[in-house]
Amino acid sequence: MRKKAYLLLTLLGVILLILTISIYTNLLPFPNLELKTWLMIASAAITGILALILTITKLQELKRGEPLTDERTKTIALKTGNTTAIITLYWLLFLSVFTQDGTLLGMDVTISETLGLAMMGMTLIYGISYLFHRGRND
Question: Structural domain boundaries of the chain?
């Protein structure tokens, strides 16, 4: 049952990520519609491949009898969440201060694009924070 729940959660995560990338690429102004289509397909394919690799790796770990979580994993998740929350507040403060009258540092942006930048920034901050804390031996 654990394997089925894990696969279902992974699948739902992949679908959510693909939808997020698709929505964000729809907000970007592309002069060539064909380029936009290929960008959406490429982002979906890359996301799908990464999710498949992660799922196969986790299933192999389960077959070997390794636990899904241990104390190190819990500590990394806790530190990553704390670091991400603090840095994200500064990122959102930066966006709110420098986005005035539809411009962000001299570039014209809409509210949707600003929201997309906020979400993308939070995701990047989380990923970088995770890689940082995973690599440390604290």
Answer: 1-68, 70-138
